[in-house]
Amino acid sequence: MRKKFSILILSDSGTNRSYTLSYLVAKILLGIVVCIVIGAVWVIFNYSTLIKRSITIQALRHENDDMRQKYNKLREFENEFNGFKKHLTKVADALDVHFSATVIHPEVIFNPKDSFPELASNPNTQDTSTSRKEGKGVPSIYPVKGWITQKFSSSHPALDLSAEYGASVVSTMDGEVEFAGSQDTLGKVVEITHPNGYQTIYGHLARINVVSGTKVKSGDLIGYVGSTGESSAPHIHYEVRLDGIPKDPERYLPK
């Protein structure tokens, strides 16, 4: 005998109803109910996941808006600073006072108008092979790719070369490192003794790449541009001395 299930529905009116289901139909109905329950649970779970994702996306949008506002404020500050810098430069020029607040790009190699008129169209055409040959007798190459921001004078017996922070600084002549360390005024500094009574000094370095007693060739890396010591911007304080007497470094550089 096949199994059957009876469903009795009682009514307050006294009219009762009875339904008889076969075992197979009951199993089908139970399966449908289970599927409905599982589907409902799946919908609820995915809905909660979508809500969480929506909240995360909304938070990211707010964060992006905040970052955009901060970026716009930085651009405004940059424009204001550039305007202030131009004004301060004009004042400095009027008072004939040295002023340097310019970020130097590494592609720039000194000021063509002041030092190399013939290279104004392409300032990076310095012949390093020729310079290194000449460097055996006198300090005849630039210690860094940059531009001259303060020239040699009786009150400033050196050449200031502004350059990008961390740019390579090289020896301008064959010699031996006499001192590599820190001083109050020049910060991290390298002093090199050369043949023929020459001595060169490289100040305000960010990092020193040699030690005392190191033998160097013209063009060898000795350190990196910085702003240590009494300095307001990244640059190199470059001195040339002959028999202990300061000399204008520009007189030895390529013309």
Structure description:
This protein has 255 residues and is of the alpha+beta class. It has 2 domains: 4-63; 112-252, Distorted Sandwich (Glucose Permease (Domain IIA)), CATH 2.70.70. Helices cover 33% and strands 27% of the residues. The chain has helices at 23-95, 112-115, 128-134; strands at 4-9, 17-22, 147-150, 159-162, 168-170, 175-183, 187-193, 198-208, 215-216, 221-225, 235-242, 245-247. Strands 3, 4, 5, 6, 7, 8, 9, 10, 11 and 12 form a 10-stranded antiparallel sheet that branches. Strands 1-2 form a two-stranded antiparallel sheet. The N and C termini lie far apart (117 Å). Residues 98-135 have low confidence and may be disordered.
Summarize this structure briefly.
The chain is of the alpha+beta class and 255 residues long.
